Hints:
6 copies of one chain form a homohexamer. Chain A is globular, with a radius of gyration of 16 Å. Chain A is mainly α. The interface between A and E is medium-sized, with 29 and 29 residues.
Amino acid sequence: MTEARQDQDPYATAERLLGFPLPLALGPGEPDVGRDFMQLGVERTFGDVWSRPGLDLHSRCLISVTIAAVLGAPQPLGGQLKIALNNGVTKEEIVELFIHLQAYAGATRAVEGYHLAKAIFAERAA
Amino acid sequence: MTEARQDQDPYATAERLLGFPLPLALGPGEPDVGRDFMQLGVERTFGDVWSRPGLDLHSRCLISVTIAAVLGAPQPLGGQLKIALNNGVTKEEIVELFIHLQAYAGATRAVEGYHLAKAIFAERAA
Amino acid sequence: MTEARQDQDPYATAERLLGFPLPLALGPGEPDVGRDFMQLGVERTFGDVWSRPGLDLHSRCLISVTIAAVLGAPQPLGGQLKIALNNGVTKEEIVELFIHLQAYAGATRAVEGYHLAKAIFAERAA
Amino acid sequence: MTEARQDQDPYATAERLLGFPLPLALGPGEPDVGRDFMQLGVERTFGDVWSRPGLDLHSRCLISVTIAAVLGAPQPLGGQLKIALNNGVTKEEIVELFIHLQAYAGATRAVEGYHLAKAIFAERAA
Amino acid sequence: MTEARQDQDPYATAERLLGFPLPLALGPGEPDVGRDFMQLGVERTFGDVWSRPGLDLHSRCLISVTIAAVLGAPQPLGGQLKIALNNGVTKEEIVELFIHLQAYAGATRAVEGYHLAKAIFAERAA
Amino acid sequence: MTEARQDQDPYATAERLLGFPLPLALGPGEPDVGRDFMQLGVERTFGDVWSRPGLDLHSRCLISVTIAAVLGAPQPLGGQLKIALNNGVTKEEIVELFIHLQAYAGATRAVEGYHLAKAIFAERAA
């Protein structure tokens, strides 16, 4: 590849971006192969893309929030909003993202996602 | 434009359709530019489209519910169902909408959305 | 059921709404069970919902166009636009639907779908 | 049709697959035509497709889980996961489905859906 | 509002971003109210969001491409890719966006969208 | 991991499943980092999931077709249909998949996808 190959420690990258270490234990009743889901998940996201130098971290944060917001996926959106706010994206930029999203993806997704953003703003203000 | 330009008081239109005034205050931790999100949101929906004479209110209600139901967006869907029931769409017509939606958008979205409609029927029957 | 049960002749309903009879022959290489797909398809749409009296035809046309437009499904959207225009929905109402859709589902889907509507307007004007 | 026509007792099929009988009563405030929604819903899913012999039950379970997971529809997804686990799909196969889904539908939907699967594994392990 | 109000000349902004003026004439058979769809469309996108100072142009381009790519909307995606390449986003950054999209939105949307990006790269290389 | 780690030669797996080798050359105007998109794409799909033993090939084919059909992604859907037909899924099973999809994802996506399946049946019958 022309860019840096896969991140050597995706779990460290995840912890750095999220602000806490990813829980690694299997849940109750979860089969052993659940570890593969977790490992591939971490490698394919935190390992594969976040450390690639060809696109800056700020842009990656905005893209990740946008994907979750367009899909209307609340739990992932919450996670991406936290990563963004932890890593240099301002609250004002988050609001602007949702204003932009409203124009192109519509009020349904924008209002739904912004409602979650407001909850995270409140959480972080407490 | 050939049609009436933008609604002069989208907040009044919102209140009329929803049955209550929209909350205008910023949430805790929400930056000032959050007022822009709210204002553009209200203008682009309640201001831009609901008062346009070229399509009747009953049809607009049905279209708005359909959009939220196809997207599977629970909070917006709840809001649109309430607007519809407040503004002349009967409960029977709502049920028919979900029967029609099931054929074209499938049981997954139809059942998910109808579950929410039933909760709103129950709330309004109490 | 409290409403009229399934349409007795969905193929006749389809022909009435579309303006032409549905092609019934299997395509080259299509297995015999393809007839089941066609038959269930016609029954579940034209049979199940269009003749139900609880929601008027005009509303059903608008709902069907909206579903296809929100999903961004070009071929079905073209079909629903033709059904709508054949059955009392005016071109002006179609334009209004896309203006409404833009607010709630965003410019991406609205512009994509309206482009198709314009092609159908042109086709019908020729 | 070349295949067995519609299931003669879709409510029995539903009960067999779900492990419990479907609730049939109308909810508070739900109009009578809500029975049509329920009846058509049961017929079009449990009646129309699950008993068709041309595709085995195991495959149908996986397809149904996949549809709900790609759409990101939590309540339907929970229902389909339970049907799958009740009817011969192993927990390991469910995990593999989400690993496969992550590659093709992305981490957003895969993580969101797998979170629900873990909750169901836990519920069934209690 | 705390930010600059709506762009004073959205048609000029559109032309600047696209590299060509938007066609304003109605299509054959298109009703007069089609001008409203065009005008509201231009105002709500080029007017409302692109000139807002709270989020830089580079980020707005990436967000717009992401929205269209997640939705799988080919014509809008082509337009946003051209706007991005016209306005400082490099081809390398576009490729990185699709690598990032693949992780979070999956190979289905990433491959579909990247295929279009390659066509635009080829067009611009000719 | 409890399962076989990543496929050692994803390009060989791709060729085996598709029936032809993947084109590896960059397109005109495509930057060098386009090789990373291709390589990660092949590794994350053909490498990561198809060879994992925990879910049989037949099921994986059906899941892949379902994902592309629910998303309404024509080019990927065509590719997955060909992989399925090349690898033991019968045409009859494909038809059954679309009948099942119609119930749960609706006629819009089912008809759109089945139209593509018919084109592939015709192509393979010629």
